[in-house]
Amino acid sequence: MSVKYIDEYRDGRLAGVFAAQIAEAVHPERAYRFMEFCGGHTHAISRFGIADLLPANVRMIHGPGCPVCVLPVGRIDMAIQLARRPDVTLCTYGDLMRVPGSRGASLLKAKAAGADIRMVYSTLDALRIAEAEPSREVVFFAIGFETTTPPTALAIRRAAARGLANFSVFCNHVLTPSAIRAILESPGEAGGMRVDGFIGPSHVSTVIGTEPYDFAARTFGKPVVVTGFEPVDVMQAILMLIRQLNEGRCEVENQYVRAVTRTGNRIAQAEIAEVFEPRDSFEWRGLGEIPRSGLRLKPAYAAFDAERRFALQGITGRDNPACECGEILRGEKRPADCKLFGTACTPDTPMGACMVSSEGACAAHWTYGRFRDLARRVA
Amino acid sequence: MNALLPDGMARVTLSGVAMDISVALVEEVQVGDYVIVHVGYALARIDPEEAERTLALMQEGGVIPPSEAAEACP
Predict the structure, then answer these.
(1) Minimum Cα–Cα distance from B21: chain A residue
(2) Residue to test with chain A: of B25, B26, B28, most A Cβ within 10 A
(3) In which order are the strands placed within the sheet that holds A224-226?
(4) What backbone torsions phi and psi does residue A287 show, to the nearest 5 degrees?
(5) CA nearest to A153 within chain B
(6) Residue of B nearest to A152 (CA)
(7) What are the phi and psi torsion angles at B20 (to 5°)?
(8) Helix ranges (DSSP H) in chain A
């Protein structure tokens, strides 16, 4: 099936053209380390074998932009606790179902044990359930970056407009620029590996625009190239980053001009601003507490805040001690460095969140990349 | 996008599957537009002219020219 605006950007010949340009542009005496922030890019880089098209001194480091991966175990534990209440119907995006909580718990296991947990595709599905079943307390388990936040905001505003008293949101939305800042401010950056530049997210940037990344260039001197999810987009963006470094530039450039503007989607931004405000601090798996990196509902929408409605207390969860998701999310280790990778931990039986979501570094490496490890070992 | 529906909804084809999504977060979308869909919501419209221009540049292995005046790096 051919799809316009996708197939063209998967053209192998064009990717080859960029591979040749990149090979020509790199200075052999220096290393180029680029972090793709977003899990969608991590997936694309593994799926399309982009690492194989790059010279040995150009290395891609996986970033923390996988919403399921960075959600700390304690928040999963809180969701499980909430779902076990007999009056609650918990609605969740599908990939959260298998994320391990403390002591091997998961929403999937809680559901099997009788909790009313339902997978939804959209916040509108959760609203429909709340309307159809007024006797149930319907809670939407909201996670994700600036892409999933406007849909949550819209659902809350609709619930308010319709006087839907049995709908609330367990909010775990997080902010991309805050995480990039935390990475740049962390001692040694990405576990002692200097990051020379960033591949900026595709869909997040359709919402926030390219402007919020300016600090990375202006304050930290790191180039950012916002790019699409298709392989030729990524190759073009890598060439743009290499040229910036070679020419001593550090700018925020936009490769994804067909969908992203400098100022982003004003309607979506207004939805976020209407309903949400930053928390003082929010915990990220692997990165720890990051100031002003998470969102909560504003007091005007407190009635829809599940944490207040059910007086939820924070839980400090326990990761599987052998799981190295944290190190992998910080760019300190690669998936194959983890003892559990491919043995105890596979997408069928994930031990850590990075193996659950298709955007997770471990799942992407298991599905597409492990054959390269094997080829390297044999050779 | 195949049809506009009431309540800020629209019918789209996503990987060959017909789906109803919300277009409440995007301005002025029309039948025939291509949109980026995330968790059941259109987040952006693909600009056909920019898409053509990007492809034309790609054919030559070129890059999107920097649009802003360069500043000195810190």
Answers:
(1) A122
(2) B25
(3) A58-65, A32-38, A197-200, A224-226, A252-254
(4) -110, -10
(5) B25
(6) B39
(7) -95, 125
(8) 12-25, 39-47, 67-70, 73-83, 107-112, 123-132, 149-162, 176-185, 203-208, 214-218, 231-246, 266-275, 306-309, 325-329, 361-364, 370-378
| pTM for the structure as a whole | 0.93
Amino acid at A346: T
**What are the tokens at A131?**
């309307």
* Chain A nearest C-alpha distance from B3 (Å): 18
Which tokens in the block code for residue A271? 């939805």
ipTM above 0.95, yes or no: no
List of domains in chain A = 16-65+176-254 (3.40.50.11750), 69-174+264-309 (3.40.50.11740), 325-369 (no CATH)
Residue with tokens 């659902």: A155
Give how far B33 is from chain A: nearest CA, Å.
11
Q: Does B73 touch chain A (CB under 8 A)?
A: yes
SS (H, E, C) chain B: CCEEECCCEEEEEECCEEEEEECCCCCCCCCCCCEEEECCEEEEECCHHHHHHHHHHHHCCCCCCCCCCCCCCC
Q: Answer for the pair A203, A147: CB distance below 8 angstroms, yes or no.
A: yes
Whole-angstrom Cα Rg for chain B: 17
Residue type, B20: D
- pLDDT tens digits for A24-59? 999 999 999 999 999 899 999 989 999 999 999 999
**Cβ atoms of A111 and A96 closer than 8 Å:** no
Half-sphere exposure of residue A357, counting CA atoms within 13 Å on the CB side?
Answer: 25
Tell me how far CA of residue A352 lies from CA of A68, A69, A119, in angstroms.
10, 8, 20
- pLDDT category, B3, cuts 50, 70, 90? very high
Q: What are the tokens at B40?
A: 């059941």
pLDDT of residue A6: 87
